[in-house]
Amino acid sequence: MAEDLAPWLYLFNRGEDFQSYRRFGAHQLATGDWQFLVWAPHAQGVAIVGDFSGWQPVALTPIADTGCWLGTHAGTVGQLYKVQVTSDGTVHEKIDPYGFGFERKPGTAARLLDLPEHTWQDAKWLAHREVTPPYDQPMNIYELHLGSFMRAADGGYLTYAEAAQAVLPYVKRMGYTHIELMPVMEHLLDASWGYQLMGYFAPTSRFGDPVDFLQFVDAAHQAGLGVIMDWVPGHFIRNTDVLARFDGTPTFEYQDPHRADNVRWGTWNFDLGKTQVRSFLISSAMFWLDYCHLDGLRVDAVSNMLYMDYDAGKEADRNRDGGRENLEGQAFLKQLNTAVFAAHPSALMIAEESSAYPLVSAPIDAGGLGFNYKWNMGWMNDTLRYFSSDPYARRAHMTLLTFSFMYMHDEQFILPFSHDEVVHGKKSLMHKMPGDRYNQFANLRVMFVWLMTHPGKKLLFMGGEWGQFLEWRDWSALEWVDLNDPMNLAMQTFTRMLNKLYRQTPSLWCQDHTPAGIAVTIGDAVDHLSYIRWGAAADDFTVVVLNLVPEERAEFRVPVPRAGTYRVVLNTESQHFGGTWTRLQRTLRTTGTPSHGQPDSVVVVLPAMGALLIAPVALAPPPLPVQAGAVTEE
């Protein structure tokens, strides 16, 4: 068997085996026995201990010149086991880094599980995904923490099956296109939200078995919902029985303890320059995309992999050229994206990157990192700072919004209102809004229109859609009782209608990533904005008007690009959404008066702290261009 593994171990040690999960860890042989393969290059000895051996060591045999250890033993599916590593004469019990399933916390033993078998029913979804690039499609992501979306009657977690029944119909009804799961990879500490990982190939046992997770993904695809998962390749949990000093020496982490130590998160940094670590991590990404059919990965904490001085206390760290860039991290991210897109051209590889590092979402051959999306953290921070302020004080800070127009096409952006913005005393989105309860909802509706009409794909964390007042708490369910309040219910109705309008309006998404997709018409005022979102055709556009102060404007002139008839397709102050308007403006006719660089205009009543979306109904023919040399008659 070792001879059969030779070519794969060669690739693994070169950092080029991207399906190493098919060989490492525990796999059941045709004989019924289990084969164990472990990478521990500096160990004096490696054994397997588990239920099947009465927790007595079963020695593995070193495979010469590979750093790997191999052995077989009889066992039964589901039995628990660990890896026993001897170094410097001391025996340590460790997890199987390639375990496909683990016991329930607080234990860390892996379970004897081979790749789970599932008969997929999502062929139609996958086929559509392969021929439908995401760039010119609507993308509206619902960020979800499975442990706190909803709880069982006894206060415990929902299973994957129960979550599918609770989550998927709701997300579908609300009009989202994708679910983004906060990490469901195995982790010990609930309060880490899944970002301090233990099992890089294992859906957490909190909610059920691995096959139950596959069924969740399959059900989402059959419901027409994509599934993205947060994935954390930069750092791992410190626990000594997990990956830390796995073979008695720094194995997965950097040799230099200063570089290995991640002060900010209390974890260890992966050594991204080590070839075997690259094989391990890229194989993890491929496992979730290949085997679990995920539609994409949101790669967490990319800045920490790009810069040597990103973490606290690392200001003096420099690379071999004297710069602050983490050259190994950059190379790893490029290799990761190259491998993923070679196997899955339609995948979503999303960078959560908080610095101004250039070309994150540009192709590698154009000098980029090769992601196809980046979270727009600058837009998010500026937007929340603006909308959190008093409406009259914010008049001096309109550039917090308009500055985004300067760089909105520098990357292929996703606009995120994520979980990170509604915890640790930052307040919920609703609680950030100024004024009394009525004005808080009015502000929130306008901010959501800004989100849904600004170039870029969209992301909203659960609970924000109805204006939950309490901060997110990972240890309990969302405040569903809020929906007994008519104002919260109206906010949920508004979000659902806005999501539906977004999906049905190509001008709001089909040119997200090109300057041709937007024309800013009023961008120099102190308390209102107007812009046009363009679709692919000359008559496909939506006019957006935002009033950012609580003052109604009775005769407000809105610039439009063509003469004709228009209609108001959304008024955030409709009584149906929790506003005060019982009679809405519907049909608008152009006045023949140019405005703000546009050839015509319509006049509207602009609601106080409100937004209007205006669409053409019947347009006059565009003027014919005057041909050179043409003679006109007097």
Task: Supply the CATH superfamily name of the largest domain.
Answer: Glycosidases
Tally the structural domains.
Answer: 3
* Overall residue-averaged pLDDT value: 96
Strand content: 15-25%
Helix content: 10-25%
N-to-C CA distance: 94 Å
CATH class of the largest domain: Alpha Beta
Task: From the alpha carbons, calculate the radius of gyration and give it in angstroms.
Answer: 27 Å
**What is the molecular shape?**
elongated
Q: Can you describe this structure?
A:
- This protein is 24% helix and 23% strand.
- The longest helix has 19 residues.
- The C terminus is likely disordered.
- The protein folds into three domains: 110 residues, Immunoglobulins (Immunoglobulin-like), CATH 2.60.40; 339 residues, Glycosidases (TIM Barrel, Alpha-Beta Barrel), CATH 3.20.20; 105 residues, Sandwich (Immunoglobulin-like), CATH 2.60.40.
- It is built from 15 helices and 30 strands.
